[in-house]
Design a protein that fits this description.
By secondary structure, the chain is mainly alpha-helical. It is 62% helix and 0% strand.
Protein backbone atom coordinates (compact mmCIF):
# COMPACT_ATOMS: atom_id res chain seq x y z
CA UNK A 1 0.00 0.00 0.00
CA UNK A 2 1.16 3.51 -0.75
CA UNK A 3 1.15 6.18 1.96
CA UNK A 4 -1.41 8.89 1.32
CA UNK A 5 -3.19 6.92 -1.39
CA UNK A 6 -5.84 4.25 -1.12
CA UNK A 7 -4.90 0.99 -2.77
CA UNK A 8 -8.14 0.89 -4.75
CA UNK A 9 -8.17 4.40 -6.17
CA UNK A 10 -6.53 4.94 -9.51
CA UNK A 11 -8.24 8.32 -9.57
CA UNK A 12 -6.23 9.42 -6.51
CA UNK A 13 -3.01 8.22 -8.09
CA UNK A 14 -3.80 9.92 -11.40
CA UNK A 15 -4.73 13.13 -9.60
CA UNK A 16 -1.49 13.05 -7.56
CA UNK A 17 0.62 12.47 -10.69
CA UNK A 18 -1.18 15.27 -12.51
CA UNK A 19 -0.64 17.70 -9.64
CA UNK A 20 3.06 16.90 -9.45
CA UNK A 21 3.52 17.13 -13.21
CA UNK A 22 1.75 20.49 -13.28
CA UNK A 23 3.85 21.83 -10.40
CA UNK A 24 7.04 20.74 -12.15
CA UNK A 25 5.88 22.37 -15.37
CA UNK A 26 5.22 25.63 -13.50
CA UNK A 27 8.64 25.57 -11.83
CA UNK A 28 10.31 24.91 -15.18
CA UNK A 29 8.48 27.85 -16.75
CA UNK A 30 9.22 30.16 -13.81
CA UNK A 31 12.91 29.22 -13.88
CA UNK A 32 13.17 29.68 -17.66
CA UNK A 33 11.51 33.09 -17.44
CA UNK A 34 13.73 33.97 -14.46
CA UNK A 35 10.79 34.69 -12.17
CA UNK A 36 12.46 32.46 -9.58
CA UNK A 37 15.95 31.14 -9.00
CA UNK A 38 17.16 27.64 -8.26
CA UNK A 39 17.36 28.69 -4.62
CA UNK A 40 13.55 28.75 -4.59
CA UNK A 41 13.61 24.96 -5.00
CA UNK A 42 15.38 24.71 -1.64
CA UNK A 43 13.26 27.23 0.24
CA UNK A 44 11.43 26.18 3.37
CA UNK A 45 8.11 27.16 1.80
CA UNK A 46 7.09 25.87 -1.61
CA UNK A 47 10.45 24.37 -2.46
CA UNK A 48 10.49 21.85 0.35
CA UNK A 49 7.01 20.65 -0.61
CA UNK A 50 8.18 20.11 -4.19
CA UNK A 51 11.31 18.25 -3.08
CA UNK A 52 9.24 16.05 -0.75
CA UNK A 53 6.79 15.25 -3.55
CA UNK A 54 9.62 14.42 -5.95
CA UNK A 55 11.19 12.16 -3.35
CA UNK A 56 7.90 10.34 -2.76
CA UNK A 57 7.45 9.87 -6.49
CA UNK A 58 10.97 8.53 -7.05
CA UNK A 59 11.02 6.25 -4.00
CA UNK A 60 7.43 4.96 -3.87
CA UNK A 61 5.49 5.67 -7.03
CA UNK A 62 7.75 5.60 -10.09
CA UNK A 63 8.36 1.90 -9.58
CA UNK A 64 4.67 1.00 -9.86
CA UNK A 65 4.06 -1.08 -12.96
CA UNK A 66 0.87 -2.33 -14.56
CA UNK A 67 1.34 -5.57 -12.59
CA UNK A 68 0.92 -3.80 -9.22
CA UNK A 69 -2.14 -4.78 -7.19
CA UNK A 70 -3.54 -1.25 -7.46
CA UNK A 71 -4.42 -2.08 -11.07
CA UNK A 72 -6.38 -5.22 -10.19
CA UNK A 73 -10.02 -4.97 -11.27
CA UNK A 74 -9.37 -1.95 -13.50
CA UNK A 75 -9.64 -1.68 -17.24
CA UNK A 76 -6.62 -1.42 -19.53
CA UNK A 77 -7.76 2.12 -20.36
CA UNK A 78 -7.61 3.15 -16.70
CA UNK A 79 -4.20 1.52 -16.30
CA UNK A 80 -2.90 3.28 -19.41
CA UNK A 81 -4.19 6.64 -18.14
CA UNK A 82 -2.21 6.28 -14.91
CA UNK A 83 0.90 5.19 -16.80
CA UNK A 84 0.65 8.22 -19.12
CA UNK A 85 0.39 10.55 -16.12
CA UNK A 86 3.42 8.85 -14.56
CA UNK A 87 5.36 9.33 -17.82
CA UNK A 88 4.42 13.01 -17.78
CA UNK A 89 5.93 13.38 -14.32
CA UNK A 90 9.12 11.60 -15.42
CA UNK A 91 9.37 13.81 -18.51
CA UNK A 92 8.99 16.96 -16.39
CA UNK A 93 11.49 15.70 -13.79
CA UNK A 94 14.08 15.23 -16.53
CA UNK A 95 13.26 18.63 -18.02
CA UNK A 96 13.76 20.27 -14.62
CA UNK A 97 16.98 18.37 -14.02
CA UNK A 98 18.24 19.31 -17.48
CA UNK A 99 17.40 22.95 -16.87
CA UNK A 100 19.13 23.04 -13.49
CA UNK A 101 22.23 21.22 -14.74
CA UNK A 102 22.48 23.33 -17.90
CA UNK A 103 23.52 26.37 -15.88
CA UNK A 104 21.15 28.58 -17.87
CA UNK A 105 19.18 29.51 -14.77
CA UNK A 106 20.42 31.13 -11.59
Amino acid sequence: EMPGLTSSSLDDLTFWFTKLSTALDCYIWALEERYITIAALNSKDAGSVLITAIQKFVVDLAIITKDHSIFDDHTPFETERVQRCKCSVIRNLFALLNLVLSGKVG
